[in-house]
Write a structure and sequence with these properties.
alpha+beta; 299 residues; ten-stranded mixed sheet; 18% helix
Amino acid sequence: MERLQYLCTPGDEGLEVLTLLRREMHLSTNLLRQLKVTEQGILLDGVRVTVRQRVRPGQVLSVLREPESGRERRVEPREGPLDIVYEDADLMILNKPAGLAVHPSPGHYDGDTLGNRVVWHLARGGETPTFRAINRLDRGTSGLMTCAKNKLAAQRLEEQLAQKGIRRTYHAVCEGAGLPERGVIDLPIGKAEGKGIMRCVRADGQRAVTHYRVLAEQNGRTLLEIQLDTGRTHQIRVHFSHLGHPLCGDFMYGRELPGMAGFALHSCAITLTQPTTGRALAFSAPDPAVFARLLEGTL
């Protein structure tokens, strides 16, 4: 069982374990709760201790990266191709193809989704087969997404995401031309009444802010670079459809295009901090070949 360790310093003399778990290891209340009831969850020099135990310099405080909770939804492993851009003990960066769902649906946890494939990959490597997607992509969206490989990494990555420490850049091809070279779309998004998962711009919705830059215009279509200040459901798709420039192939907010597995939205770059070492990480993935065909007008 993998552990995260901390060597107590002279300045830590007499401090409670709880103080170090929060200050030095940055553990959340939920993760601490799980560690406290897990055998060997919190050890000081290899001996299980309570969070009220006081430490001495030179002692080694360690916690399980993967405490057992028994509450996580089980995703069945299923072999399938994975485009792994990066992997270490804490996380995976995956390049998801368009048309592949990220999560199994209720009652179908053994289906062919990214989650099923990740669990198969982890189980084959002898690691805990739990799927933890940090940033999620719609089925029709391709590109980079982050998965945590243990609870501790998941907690830290989710905190990064909430604090805008994980930055994602998207490329998209939309219908039409004539958009300003750069722009900020600041329009609230809410549920479209009576239309299931659809969203729309509405005055009483949640604030949604999208930044874009025009990269190219060709054959009545526009290639965009996009970054988000907020992460509302279908935000990019809703905003550009509202402006009269739906994404190419978007069956829900524009029109479906035969020959496309999804729609023309791609998570092309991501930057984040490695959750254990603090090292800055940056990754990119080239646009799908279908983007060139859309701009050439052959699709």
